[in-house]
Amino acid sequence: MTGLPSSQPAATLIRPGLIEVVDRAVPTPADDEVLVAVSCVGVCGSDTHYYREGRIGSFVVREPLVLGHEAAGTVVACGKQATGPAPGQRVAIEPGFPCRRCHPCRTGRYNLCPDIRFLATPPVDGALTRYLAVPSDFAHPVPDTLSDQAAALIEPLSVAVWACRQGKVGLGEEVLVTGAGPIGVLCALVARAAGARPTVAEVHPDRRARARGLGLEDVVEPSRLAPADRRFHKLIECSGAPAALRQGLGLLGPGGRAVLVGMSGAEDISLPLSLAQTQELTLQGCFRYANTYPSAIGLAAAGHVPLDSMVDKSFGLEQADEALMATTRDPSLLKVVVQP
Length: 340
Ligand SMILES: NC(=O)c1ccc[n+]([C@@H]2O[C@H](COP(=O)([O-])OP(=O)(O)OC[C@H]3O[C@@H](n4cnc5c(N)ncnc54)[C@H](O)[C@@H]3O)[C@@H](O)[C@H]2O)c1
Ligand SMILES: [Zn+2]
Ligand SMILES: [Zn+2]
Prior knowledge:
Blueprint: E1 7-15, E2 18-25, E3 33-42, H1 45-53, E4 55-56, E5 59-60, E6 65-66, E7 70-78, E8 90-93, E9 96-97, H2 103-106, E10 117-118, E11 131-135, E12 139-141, H3 148-152, H4 154-166, E13 174-178, H5 182-193, E14 197-201, H6 205-213, E15 219-220, E16 232-237, H7 242-250, E17 252-260, H8 273-278, E18 282-285, H9 293-301, H10 307-310, E19 311-315, H11 320-329, E20 335-338
Parallel strand pairs: 13-14, 13-16, 14-15, 16-17, 17-18, 19-20
Antiparallel strand pairs: 1-2, 1-6, 3-7, 3-11, 3-20, 4-5, 7-8, 8-12, 9-10
Helix pairs in contact: 4-5, 4-9
Bound molecules: nicotinamide-adenine-dinucleotide and zinc ion (2 copies).
């Protein structure tokens, strides 16, 4: 690879609370990989969790770990057998690389691959660096009308596309979205683009204001939802708060469907099972996404989701620790990005 440096800085989690910019080798793409020069990385709640606590559930950071999994960039080199994007092509990087051989992989549910390698999930290093080698079919071309930061946010938009697919969200449906973090806001915007009518319930006033500013009309404080108002066909739970899930289930009409996007961290929570039984409610798990990138890119390119307006602040690689703490310090911020 001519013209490329041999080493590069990477924002690396050394131990909880300590990020250092460490020199790492620039990878050589394998035969089926492309090398991407990273232009923008979105900071996700999971990055912040690893930074603060060094673990998420059973995923524990035992070795220094490069964070960041919401990434976009430009292809700069291709492996010998890499098909797909050519050098110069701008891409959104799908960050989970499945084995392609197991039963979930072969049946199209590769998000459930037990051997998936997901960026910034221990022990796989993430994208807060300059160059990243990825399987060529996980580097998805984006049109030049999408900015670098919008291309990076195709990752959380994919979570929302998958949540709406898992929810079978359809035309004219009333959809309750609980939690107006980046994920809830994107779920509501995708549900609207799918022809549904989203209502967003959020406890934090700044987050409610932010959601309204992004064009969502029906945004309420959760206690304003009348318990008898069981008009909702679908619930997309995006807060991780058990109280929001219980409330949302109670607001579903007969035959309603609840999509579990938010992660509470708790193994067990109590739910109104007799209600679920007598109303034939469906509880649908939801984990990452499969085959969503082209749809998410299409939605963003068509202007259905104002990704650029979601970004509040941008940081350099040297300020990665500030970027990781930004939304904790100022909860009114919705999304921050790092531009390596
Ligand atoms: N299933 C998946 O694949 C997947 C992918 C990405 C994120 N997640 C999870 O989705 C959730 C949302 O992600 P995010 O980045 O938007 O998080 P976030 O923390 O920024 O947003 C959560 C929001 O929920 C609000 N909230 C808390 N309690 C509430 C209640 N009782 N009712 C209504 N709102 C309430 C909070 O004020 C906050 O604004 C997180 O739990 C995250 O771990 C899941
Ligand atoms: Zn994320
Ligand atoms: Zn697999």
